[in-house]
């Protein structure tokens, strides 16, 4: 499976993250002791890098709406 293949069925979200928040997300995703927090940070990080919700959802085994909710919560 190619993680970055953007099919017409992949919903694209542009969270408009620059490098500083992406770096912070990467750090939290790597160092947070809570596995759920790490997964959420990785999902938002990947959205910021241009991956589609559906693709991220397939890899972390959640619904695409859940990935969207992770982003909404992150954005506050």
Molecular structure report:
The chain has 76 residues and is an all-alpha fold. It has one domain. The protein is 62% helix and 0% strand. The protein contains 4 helices and no strands. Helix 1 packs antiparallel against helix 2 and helix 2 packs antiparallel against helix 3. The longest helix has 14 residues. The relative contact order is 0.20. The N terminus is likely disordered.
Give the low-pLDDT segments. 1-10
Order of helices and strands: HHHH
Strand percent estimate: under 5%
Category by helix and strand content: mainly alpha
What coarse outline follows from CA principal-axis ratios?
globular
Number of strands: 0
Query: Main β-sheet: number of strands, strand sense, barrel status?
Result: none
């Amino acid at each position: 499976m190619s993680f970055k293949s953007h099919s017409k069925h992949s919903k694209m979200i542009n969270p408009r993250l620059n490098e500083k928040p992406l770096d912070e997300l990467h750090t939290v995703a790597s160092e947070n002791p809570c596995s759920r927090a790490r997964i959420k940070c990785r999902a938002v990080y990947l959205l910021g890098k241009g991956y589609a919700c559906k693709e991220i959802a397939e890899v972390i085994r959640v619904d695409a709406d859940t990935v969207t909710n992770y982003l909404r919560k992150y954005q506050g």
